[in-house]
Design a protein that fits this description.
It is elongated and about 70 Å long. By secondary structure, it is mainly β. A hairpin with a 2-residue loop joins strand 20 and strand 21. The protein has no helices and 36 strands. The chain folds into three domains: 69 residues, Laminin (Ribbon); 71 residues, Laminin (Ribbon), CATH 2.10.25; 72 residues, Laminin. The two termini are 18 Å apart. The strands form twelve sheets. Strands 1-2-12 form a three-stranded antiparallel β-sheet, with no helix packed on it. Strands 3-4-11 form a three-stranded antiparallel β-sheet, with no helix packed on it.
């Protein structure tokens, strides 16, 4: 599963966009590749422009989306958003290609993909970390912690921040929204609180503008 890393200490669920809040902290817009509005409170779908009261794209107008605070964690999210290390660690690749954690801040990841050295030192072939005449021992990495999937059942899962929806043939698919409404056509979904209007291809909510319907993606199948 993936998350969207805003920086090393804040992240948003997969399918969200990191946007700054008025406080300067990170917030999460609940749609992918969103436009972050200059009021630091709202966001709009990709390709739309923020106005004072709505999102506009040509003659099409939809409601503004409200951001939620990002998840603040004392962890270091590794590049790609699929794993993390404890606070004060550095993400380094392991021999397996997976992420590992070096127990040092801003560490040097050694080419052997097993060890690491303190910031400002060099990994040597003799198995030490060197800075000028100062020599210290190598540090060993530990595997990074994998960020959890959303289990659907039957060995299928969806990325974090998604919703499991059944396909027409009874398999699982992933709606790229949390707590989403799965549409009856078994192909589309809508944000929480919206209703699927399949004839119009939109998601509707009382007293709000309709938005474009979302397409489900195949779920992740665990290897047998």
């Amino acid at each position: 599963a993936k998350v969207v890393a805003c920086n090393a200490t804040a992240y948003c669920p997969d399918g969200n966009t990191c946007c700054r809040l008025a406080s300067g902290q990170w917030g999460c817009c609940p749609i992918p590749n969103a436009v972050c509005c200059s009021d630091h409170r709202h966001c709009c779908p990709h390709g739309y422009t923020c106005t004072s009261a709505s999102c506009q794209k040509g003659s099409h107008v939809t409601q503004l989306f409200k951001k939620k605070p990002a998840i603040q964690v004392k962890i270091v999210v590794c590049p790609g958003g699929t794993a993390y290390c404890p606070d004060g660690n550095t993400c380094c690749k392991l021999e397996s290609g997976q992420w590992g954690c070096c127990p040092l801040l801003n560490a040097v990841c050694c080419p052997d993909r097993v060890h690491c050295c303190p910031h400002g030192t060099t990994c040597t072939s003799s198995g030490t970390c060197q800075s000028g005449s100062h020599v210290t021992k190598l540090f060993k990495k530990k595997p990074a912690i994998q960020i959890n999937d959303v289990p659907c059942g039957g060995g299928s899962s969806c990325p974090d921040g998604s919703t499991c929806c059944k396909t027409e043939d009874g398999e699982w698919a992933c709606c790229p929204l949390p707590n989403a409404e799965c549409c009856k056509d078994h192909e589309h979904c809508c944000p929480e609180g919206y209703t699927c209007d399949l004839s119009a291809g939109t998601c509707t909510q009382q007293n709000s503008e309709s938005i474009e319907i979302f397409l489900n993606k195949p779920a992740i199948q665990e290897p047998k």
